[in-house]
């Protein structure tokens, strides 16, 4: 049903292309001289409209459609600003870096190249779109590292205070595994999550029955977690968890998802870390919110300095 709805949206976009080409060639925004056309905006907003089950031709949904367009336009503007900033800073992302990210994605999902390409085809996503998304993400990370990360300071006093307050939950992360449950669009994720939380349903049972992730047959088990390869968002989520914890529902590429963190070997005793051993872990915990706050300030400054003409 959802695929049919998205297909109808795509047909709508193609139809509009033929009938209202002049309208689509209109400018939605200009960002430091770089133009975003209505066609670009509507094409980029198409997946978001599909997920929200909004029909741009339905007058009753006009306000909701406009909200989606403005949200997507805001993201497109920021992508342009960060791209322009990357050029100023002489930051670039090589094709091999993107290849590495795609290889890591396939490894994490236990997919061969053929299986990965088949999944993309099924979801009507081109490899070029995937590459562009990774390039944007890597550029963002590099800019954060250069302009934000180096300005974030976590003091020894802050680390010690955190350790004293949380040392009972600081443990050796060696051998940690993670499981991922990505809910099918036609199930009640909130109800299932409540059953997992209450113990009526195990995470593994829920993943096997309701997940659309590749490892559903293994109870969602994605294998050992390679902490040094996690992006900041995932590390920030997982680093605060104890073995056995399950996250609340969060958004994962437009789908509702949950993560289960567990340790192989069942009830093996956990090794509590000393202050020295825990310092890198605590530093990461305290650094992330500071970095995100700095990044928000940084992007706000980019907007304030930019010449942005929105014409919606």
From TrEMBL:
What terms describe the molecular function in GO for this protein? peptidyl-prolyl cis-trans isomerase activity
Task: Please state every residue range assigned to the domain named PpiC.
Answer: 180-251
**What protein name is recorded for this chain?**
Peptidylprolyl isomerase
Asked if the record carries the keyword Signal, the reply is yes
InterPro entries from the UniProt entry: PPIase_dom_sf, PPIase_PpiC, PrsA_foldase, Trigger_fact/SurA_dom_sf
Record's keyword annotation contains Transport: no
Q: Which UniProt keywords apply?
A: Isomerase, Rotamase, Signal
Provide the leader sequence positions. Answer: 1-21
């Amino acid at each position: 049903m959802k695929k049919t709805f998205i297909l109808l949206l795509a047909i709508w976009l193609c139809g509009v292309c033929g009938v209202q080409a002049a309208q689509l060639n209109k400018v939605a925004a200009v960002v430091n001289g770089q133009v975003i056309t209505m066609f670009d905006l509507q094409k980029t907003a198409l997946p978001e409209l599909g997920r929200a089950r909004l029909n741009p031709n339905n007058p009753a949904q006009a306000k909701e459609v406009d909200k989606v367009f403005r949200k997507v336009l805001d993201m497109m503007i920021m992508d342009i600003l960060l791209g322009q900033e990357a050029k100023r800073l002489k930051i670039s992302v090589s094709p091999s870096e993107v290849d590495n990210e795609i290889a890591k994605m396939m490894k994490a999902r236990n997919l061969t190249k053929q299986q990965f390409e088949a999944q993309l085809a099924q979801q009507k996503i081109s490899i070029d779109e995937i590459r562009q998304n990774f390039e944007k993400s890597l550029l963002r990370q590099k800019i954060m590292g250069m302009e934000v990360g180096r300005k974030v300071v976590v003091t020894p006093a802050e680390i010690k205070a955190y350790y004293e307050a949380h040392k009972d939950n600081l443990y050796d992360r060696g051998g940690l595994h993670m499981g991922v449950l990505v809910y099918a669009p036609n199930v009640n994720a909130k109800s299932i999550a409540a059953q997992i939380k209450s113990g009526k349903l195990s995470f593994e049972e829920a993943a096997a029955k309701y997940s659309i992730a590749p490892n559903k047959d293994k109870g969602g088990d994605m294998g050992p977690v390679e902490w040094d390869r996690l992006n900041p968002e995932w590390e920030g989520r997982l680093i605060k968890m104890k073995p056995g914890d399950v996250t609340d529902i969060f958004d994962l590429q437009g789908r509702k998802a949950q993560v289960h963190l567990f340790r192989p070997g069942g009830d093996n005793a956990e090794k509590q870390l000393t202050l020295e051993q825990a310092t890198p872990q605590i530093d990461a915990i305290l650094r992330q919110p500071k970095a995100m706050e700095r990044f928000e300030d940084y992007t706000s400054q980019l907007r304030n300095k930019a010449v942005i003409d929105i014409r919606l």
